[in-house]
């Protein structure tokens, strides 16, 4: 299953990391896999079983054929979607303390912005 935020074939799908356009969600997802492994010597390691591939599309095929939804390790903090690669997520925008849409936390009675990091990422569709 291609992630839900990647719309149908035939319309342009933009990579939010480099603004490159793709004509299908599968091509965009394969491109995001390539972003995940930049600078790693041209190999692509499965994040679940650690099998190594020399082509991003072979890793993509492996993930869809072998691993299911329960193997996805990255969560969107804004919706129930889960992902295999962190590049399918983006950091939540920094919001002003006290705004109703912010994710502020109270520390000793003082409202402060929630820390960045895991759990503060949202999918590209949110």
Brief overview:
With 126 residues, the protein is an alpha+beta fold. The chain is built from 2 helices and 10 strands.
How would you summarize the topology of this molecule?
Blueprint: E1 13-14, E2 21-22, H1 25-36, E3 44-45, E4 52-53, H2 56-66, E5 74-75, E6 82-83, E7 89-91, E8 105-107, E9 110-112, E10 121-123
Antiparallel strand pairs: 1-2, 3-4, 5-6, 7-10, 8-9
Protein name: Zinc finger protein 423
InterPro entries: Znf_C2H2_sf (IPR036236), Znf_C2H2_type (IPR013087)
Keywords: Metal-binding, Zinc, Zinc-finger
CATH topology value of the largest domain: Double Stranded RNA Binding Domain
In the CATH hierarchy, the architecture of the largest domain is 2-Layer Sandwich
Provide the helix percentage: 10-25%
Strand content: 15-25%
Question: In total, how many beta strands?
Answer: 10
Distance between the termini: 19 Å
Q: In one word, what is the shape?
A: globular
Biggest β-sheet description: 2 strands, antiparallel
Give structural notes.
One of its GO terms (molecular function) is zinc ion binding. Residues 13-40, 44-72 form the C2H2-type domain. Pfam families: zf-C2H2_4. Keywords: Metal-binding, Zinc, Zinc-finger. The structure is a single chain. With 126 residues, the chain is α+β, with helices and mostly antiparallel strands. The protein has two domains: 7-71, Double Stranded RNA Binding Domain (2-Layer Sandwich); 74-126, no CATH class. Helices cover 18% and strands 19% of the residues. It has two helices and ten strands; from the N terminus they run ββαββαββββββ. Helix 1 packs across helix 2. Residues 1-9 and 95-102 have low confidence and may be disordered.
């Amino acid at each position: 299953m291609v992630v839900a935020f990647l719309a149908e074939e035939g319309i342009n799908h933009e990579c939010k990391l480099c603004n490159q356009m793709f004509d299908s969600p599968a091509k965009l997802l394969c491109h995001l896999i390539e972003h995940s492994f930049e600078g790693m010597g041209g190999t692509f390691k499965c994040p679940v079983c650690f099998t190594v591939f020399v082509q991003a599309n072979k890793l993509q095929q492996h993930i869809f054929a072998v691993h299911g939804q329960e193997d996805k390790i990255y969560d969107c903090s804004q919706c129930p979607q889960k992902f295999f690669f962190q590049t399918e997520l983006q950091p939540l925008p920094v919001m002003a303390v006290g705004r109703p849409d912010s994710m502020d936390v109270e520390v000793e009675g003082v409202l402060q912005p929630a820390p960045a990091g895991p759990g503060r990422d949202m999918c590209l569709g949110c």
